[in-house]
Amino acid sequence: MSSIENLKAFDPFADTGDDDTQPTNYIHIRIQQRNGRKTLTTVQGLPDEYDLKRILKVLKKDFACNGNIVKDEELGEVIQLQGDQRVKVMEFLTTKLQLQKKNIKIHGF
Amino acid sequence: MSVEELGFDPSLKKKKKKSTKSFEDPSATASPSETTPEVDDVLSGLKKKKKSTASAPGADASGDAADDVTDSFAELKLKKKKKKVVTADDFEKELEKAGLDEVTTTSATEDINKDSEDANSQQSQLGLPYSSLLSRFFQILSANNPELAGDRSGSKFRIPPPVCQREGNKKTAFANVQEISDKLQRSPEHVIQYLFAELGTSGSVDGQKRLIIRGRFQPKQLENVLRRYIIEYVTCKTCKSINTQLKKESANRLFFLVCNSCGSTRSVSSIKTGFQAKVGRKKKPVA
Ligand SMILES: [Zn+2]
Questions:
Q1: pLDDT tens digits for B228-245?
Q2: What is the per-residue pLDDT across B24-70, written as a single tens digit (0 to 9) for each?
Q3: Rg of chain B's alpha carbons, rounded to an integer?
Q4: Is the whole model's pTM more than 0.80, yes or no?
Q5: H/E element holding A43?
Q6: How close, in Å, is residue B281 to chain A by CA atoms?
Q7: CA B111, B115, B116: angle at the middle one, nearest 5?
Q8: From ligand 1's centre to the CA of B256, what distance in Å?
Q9: A65 touches A85 (CB < 8 A)
Q10: A108 interface with B at CB cutoff 8 Å
Q11: What ipTM does this complex have?
Q12: What stretches of chain A show up as alpha helix (H) in DSSP?
């Protein structure tokens, strides 16, 4: 049964080798510890058609936190936000941007 | 005569209906009051037509019969009554049926219970009651093969909770990585790689095989990450067993999870660190 689901869900022989390239369809929300109790939330893999600057602006205002956009050679542009905003970002992406929940992965503890 | 009949029968109906349901009462009380003046009037045929068609749609035959005299009238009334009575009877019958049904179902279950009791008593007569046989079977099974008895709390399935100590101010020592990865039948390197990727940090293994993680982490947080690791890289999706192996297929460089219990195989994605923000004082990229 699982094999049939695999067939229609995604191709296991697609580009998922050992190389560190991400499958572009996933949006990763991660958390990192900074000094002390402070944390940092990163949102990686947002589709290109979105204007990250505008999203960041809204996110900063909504969550009352600072943030910035970091360009990575391999992974594209990544939004960084101060504090643990993972759940809120997830909610924003699903409700405001109509992104599929299954395409979003929340990492961290 | 017909008046008397009317006087009698509706009252009968009333009684019946009162006993069955209260919401039909107004119609029952209304019909005699309507019909009694009609009987007194000889010219009531027209009225009757209207009212009969309006009140009782089933009495279409009244249009033909209304031209005749009181006999036919009475007949009509009788018909009507009969019909009404029949409907009431039907209703009551159905009620009774429903009641009976309930009774029968309950009695049926009782019968089943009785049957099982009978069976039990038969077995107890033979000296071996089913319940004791069953408990004996499970005792033996859990003594010899606890996994088959559904016991997942055995040493093979219990994963010890992560033990961690504070290592200085900014580091956490995860003391039992080795033990946990042994239980999961995974290399500690794989577990550590996943931990670092998920926690967005780095670290090293010290001389006592403890994992030193940069950052402060509670055991609960590490447990959450380990839980996800187990779901992703250890449990068999088919039979939920954690008795699995991780194999690397050299042909396509994919990792496959092979279940030792049921033999099913599934592919797992390799651990990806993804984006790591540069944290701390060092602004320059780490070499
Ligand atoms: Zn299995």
A1: 999 999 999 888 888 899
A2: 444 444 444 444 444 444 444 444 444 444 444 444 444 444 444 44
A3: 42
A4: no
A5: strand A39-44
A6: 9
A7: 120
A8: 13
A9: yes
A10: yes
A11: 0.74
A12: 2-9, 52-63, 86-95
